[in-house]
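Weekly structure sync, notes
Attendees: PL (lead), two postdocs, one rotation student
Agenda item 3: pending single-chain targets
PL asked that the sequence for the first pending target be pasted directly into the notes so everyone works from the same version. It is reproduced below exactly as submitted, 237 residues in total.
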Amino acid sequence: MTLPKLETPRYSCQLPSSGETVYYRPFLVGEQKILLIAQESEDNQAQVSEMLRIIDACCEKIKVDTLPSVDLEYLFLQIRIKSIGDTSDVALECEQCKEAVQTVINLHQMEVVGLDQKVNNLIELSDTISIEMRYPSLSLLGDIPVTDEEGIGADSIFKLLNKCVVTVTDGQDVYTRDDFTEKELDTFLEGMSIPMLDQVQEFMNSIPKLIIKHEYQCEACEYNSKVDLEGLASFFG
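Predicted structure, written out during the meeting:
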């Protein structure tokens, strides 16, 4: 006897950064199981890898390796809402007494900030030399290690800059990533002046991000805290 094939519904949404329409389905039980195992491992790279695999499996005609991180986070939340529900139980810290607070966030309250502050991704370093940049993908951000409480270190920042360069133009000559090595690009970036680096950092600082504004009350001291949750780990932690 051949068992029937279960049909899954098809939904659509628009990517925040481009407005492109993407079609997707909810993830399946087997996919959710693998995702939960990855989340329980506390391995950031494994979690990101599994999220990308699920996005790739559930969405039609997208390239998860090149989409900006804000689009991938938005897509994953849309898939998660249709698959499990629009709320998530998370543990946060009370701003007043520092006690752990169990609270429920509404995933529909997500918003994308920074889209109105777009910076030109073609950066002119001199009269003849310019570089074309792209926003980092989610997999790239997952590969950048956090070195201290303040965030990523200098080496990681330059690694991120390196990965976000698409082309280097010198007069009429345009060099793509197939034309130079990462080491050669590192040497090029390290040869920039401080004002040149400031232009590049202005673009990197303009990266749109997904946040959820959330208010919650501590049961211990009844203090009302407000927080801007950022990053997928914050939405499901």
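Discussion points:
- The first helix runs from residue 29 to 40.
- Residues 146-151 have pLDDT under 50 and may be disordered.
Action: rotation student to compare against the earlier draft before next sync.
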